[in-house]
Design goal:
alpha+beta; ten-stranded mixed β-sheet; 33% helix; globular
């Protein structure tokens, strides 16, 4: 390799790092940069800088916002309409869809069931401006959730309870169609970002996506009743990380999501219309030996939430806050262990080999959804 080639290579790396630094270094900025996936979808070889930027953003912040030209964002509105109708059903009707015998991994999870891990020791020394509003130790979350499987199931698996069939509510005839459509679109985005991240980390393009094949991917919209829980700093989803590979969100009709970047700075998320937010989960942290950390976040009633409640009342809209959320997973029977050059990371020993199904089962037990 000649000197000119070396200099060009170093310059490209410097420019990528500088670009990401400039995008994230300003604490006062509430918004995060947007990565358009169009260039990669049209010609992956022309999108090397985009791949590097995604990898760098995941490393520095644990999250990114993307625009995917394949995603018809009207589907997000139809999906939220669908879930508002569901959560507005009476309690007796919703309880028909609860499946505690399957660790609540399909169907409905009522409010007051899920409880975040205790991370009090992690946050106790943070400055006041970066402290979560979640109480320490955390209580049970006052939110509902509905889990809906997306994609093919494995023909054989050691973890049948994590890969069972969906529960279809009796009262909503279009429920399955709406869930499958929006979940499939978001999974396509997850797979594309996983491919781009792999290339950005100098791994084979399919390093992550082949591990995700037949995974227990879950469309997982939460439902928070803002007619009942509307006091400022009420935490619907207490301070936590996600246990899966990567989480993707569409835009909610009520703000309230706050995230912590790798430098432990608390940031509100203001997602532009037509975009999707992705956040790293514990499985991605495992595969990269901590190069990417699972992103901490909480969902709370903020001043912006209260303003949105007021507008919704004036417009006579639903006061259920629905999250447009999907959890992508490594397949249950595949192993979590650092991949590629991450195997030689100084932190690799902190991430011992384990099946994804066992890792998920242990995490579910810790948050009171499993045994």
């Amino acid at each position: 390799m000649d000197l000119f080639t070396v200099l060009i290579s170093l310059s490209a790396g410097f420019i990528t790092s500088l670009m990401v630094y400039m995008l994230f270094s300003k604490k006062s900025e509430a918004d995060f940069p947007v990565v358009d996936l169009s260039r990669f979808l049209n010609d992956p070889k022309s999108a090397k800088e985009d791949c590097k930027a995604i990898a760098e953003m995941l490393h520095k912040t644990g999250l990114l916002i993307v625009r995917d030209p394949r995603v018809d964002y009207a589907e997000n509105d139809r999906f939220i309409d669908n879930m508002e109708q569901y959560y507005e059903l009476d309690l007796k009707e919703k309880m028909k869809d609860v499946r505690p015998q399957y660790h609540y991994q399909v169907g409905a999870t009522p409010e007051g069931i899920e409880k975040a891990r205790n991370h009090c020791s992690k946050v106790k020394n943070l400055p006041a401006s970066d402290q979560p509003v979640t109480v320490c130790p955390p209580g049970k979350d006052p939110k509902w959730r509905y889990f809906w499987r997306i994609g093919e199931r494995p023909k054989e698996t050691e973890f049948k309870q994590l890969n069972i069939s969906n529960v279809i509510p009796e009262k909503l005839p279009n429920f399955q169609k709406r869930m499958d459509r929006w979940g499939t679109l978001m999974m396509e985005t997850c797979r594309t970002v996983a491919s781009m991240a792999a290339l950005g980390f100098d791994l084979k393009e399919d390093t992550f996506t082949k591990l995700m094949e037949n995974g227990p991917h879950l469309l997982a919209p939460t439902g928070s009743d803002l007619s009942k829980y509307n006091k400022k700093n009420t935490a619907f989803a207490s301070y936590h990380y996600d246990l899966n590979f990567m989480t993707i969100h569409g835009r909610s009709r009520f703000p309230g999501l706050f995230v912590w970047t790798r430098d432990q700075k608390r940031r509100p998320v203001k997602m532009p219309k037509g975009c999707l937010l992705l956040q790293a989960g514990k499985q991605l942290e495992w595969l990269t030996a901590g190069h990417v950390l699972a992103g901490f976040h909480e969902v709370v009633v903020s001043d912006a939430t209260i303003s949105a409640i007021k507008r919704a009342k004036e417009e006579k809209r639903s006061l259920w806050r629905v999250s447009s959320t999907l959890f992508s997973h490594v397949a249950s029977d595949n192993h979590l262990t650092p991949v590629g050059h991450f195997k030689s990371s100084p932190n690799a020993s902190k991430y011992p080999k384990i099946t994804a199904g066992q890792q998920v089962s242990e995490e579910l037990a810790a948050i009171k959804l499993g045994k």
